[in-house]
């Protein structure tokens, strides 16, 4: 295996210590904040995990030869994954109900309540909000997660298509699709009448199963196998989708997600993904 270690504060001494711990044959820089330890043993992985947690580093054991050019699709969540905010929480702030909505959001992301129920309850609290408030959230508060630009550029350079899935709203996913030149989106549509939110969602709510179904549709459309798909998310409603990906990544995620994914990115930005699956130099 190769062991990829990375983090904002990584030092060469970290690579040296982990190379000794894993009996790695060679230390190879991947980027300014990442090293690959080639020929690493997983026999002492618990100690690797403890070291990395203490040093605030992300790590992943990657099969030798595994790289981005073997994949054809990234399926990623939007809120708190591709972007830094939970859009519905910021919309709620416009009508003074952010604490109530954020509490429901957090409970849903931990898997404590059904997502469709949680979304129905949260959207109901937005009734009467002016449509223009959605644009304010997009313009004033929505920001890409650190490293998103580099990740997207690397994926596109390898011909990997990108599906943005969200239990949030088309108002934001479609603008991101256009602005970032993404390939596909799937999300929910807010009902708006006379320029105001009605407090309802149009059609069937895109929940955890809906995200997985969107992955299946696009994967079939592109003629890809499960092994050619990367899934990324942070909340419990991403788990069904992540389970259908060849590689699954928990990004700054809840514990329930970190426990069930191939890799966890806890300290680095989204550019940790291309670092993790960068081609080796011979």
Strand-helix topology:
Blueprint: E1 2-6, H1 12-22, E2 26-31, E3 34-38, H2 45-55, E4 58-62, E5 73-77, H3 78-82, H4 87-93, H5 98-109, H6 115-124, H7 132-140, H8 148-157, E6 161-169, H9 170-180, E7 184-193, E8 196-202, H10 208-222, E9 229-233, H11 239-242, E10 247-251, H12 255-258, E11 263-265, H13 272-276
Parallel strand pairs: 5-6, 5-9, 6-7, 9-10, 10-11
Antiparallel strand pairs: 1-3, 1-4, 2-3, 7-8
Features:
Rossmann fold; seven-stranded mixed β-sheet; four-stranded antiparallel β-sheet; alpha/beta; 13 helices; 282 residues; Alpha-Beta Plaits; elongated
Walk me through the structure.
The protein has 282 residues and is α/β, with parallel strands linked by helices. The chain has 2 domains: 1-64, Alpha-Beta Plaits, CATH 3.30.70; 68-277, Rossmann fold, CATH 3.40.50.1000. Helices cover 40% and strands 23% of the residues. The chain contains 13 helices and 11 strands. The protein has helices at 12-22, 45-55, 78-82, 87-93, 98-109, 115-124, 132-140, 148-157, 170-180, 208-222, 239-242, 255-258, 272-276, and strands at residues 2-6, 26-31, 34-38, 58-62, 73-77, 161-169, 184-193, 196-202, 229-233, 247-251, 263-265. The strands form 2 sheets. The chain has a 7-stranded mixed sheet with strand order 8-7-6-5-9-10-11, with helices on both faces. The protein has a 4-stranded antiparallel sheet with strand order 2-3-1-4. Helix 4 (87-93) runs antiparallel to helix 5 (98-109) and helix 5 runs antiparallel to helix 6 (115-124). The protein is elongated, with a radius of gyration of 20 Å. The mean pLDDT is 94.
